[in-house]
Amino acid sequence: MKYRYLLPATLFVGFATLQAQESVSNAGRWSKEQIQNERPAVVTPPGHTTDAKPGAMPSDAIVFFDGKDLSKWKGRGKGEDDAAKWQVKDGFMEVVRGTGAIQTRDQVEGDCQWHIEWCTPAEVKGNSQGRGNSGVFIGGYPEVQVLDSFQNDTYPDGQASSLYKKSVTLVNASRGPGKWQTYDIICIREKKDAAGKVIQPGSITVLHNGIVTQFAVQEGGKAVSGGLSLQDHGNPVRFRNIWARKLVVPPVKAPRK
């Protein structure tokens, strides 16, 4: 008599899921070895044991969303039909699939700090780039990726707080699905002298849940001002407590010889 050894169905499901993750994760640009070698270390952000509440805004904050309405935002329509069509409830805004990205009506000139709080769905669906995907675009800078990167592998320059396809995040500081997270993004604009010569390139620094994940990355910053745009990637990602501060950051002086 021949015996058959039956494997639990969960193993087959797990294997299929792993295959799906691998097929999505490397996106044709990363080998399995590269993903393994360059995968950011995981750092647990402060306050992970409780659900963070919206913090008080600084006294000099320019408020773009305080949980009440989207009057300071516009959608992809034109003229009188340019209103942002995302949902607002319980103090947050939520992506409505298919309505498109929304952007601030006003821009912030010069160096600035942007504060954004966001939350991916508590119910986990999909994997890699298909899980809680959105993005933060500040005029003239690369996309700061929004993604559920908690125990969710993807290519290193595509996970939460990466500069999408530009710069790998220093660490993975993600909180779990359904938990509110924060971005504080420091944008330094390109500096020129009186003759128009660039004396300091533009740069971007990102703090994810209070942890530095991008530091003075020299990408973007050529524009003198910019607004904020939030991406509709088809996932019901939520945002709240969005504000900016103008900064006065002098150019770094060259050392004396």
Please name the defining characteristics of this protein:
2 helices, mainly beta, 19 strands, 257 residues, single chain, Jelly Rolls
How would you portray this structure in words?
- The protein is mainly beta and 257 residues long.
- The protein has one domain (9-246): Exo-inulinase, domain 1 (Jelly Rolls, Sandwich).
- The chain has helices at residues 9-25, 32-38; strands at residues 41-42, 62-65, 73-74, 87-89, 92-94, 102-104, 108-109, 112-119, 134-138, 144-146, 171-172, 181-188, 191-192, 198-200, 203-208, 211-217, 225-226, 228-230, 238-246.
- Strands 2, 4, 5, 8, 12, 15, 16 and 19 form an eight-stranded antiparallel β-sheet that branches. Strands 3-6-18-9-10 form a five-stranded antiparallel β-sheet, with no helix packed on it.
- Strand 15 (203-208) and strand 16 (211-217) form a beta hairpin.
- It is globular.
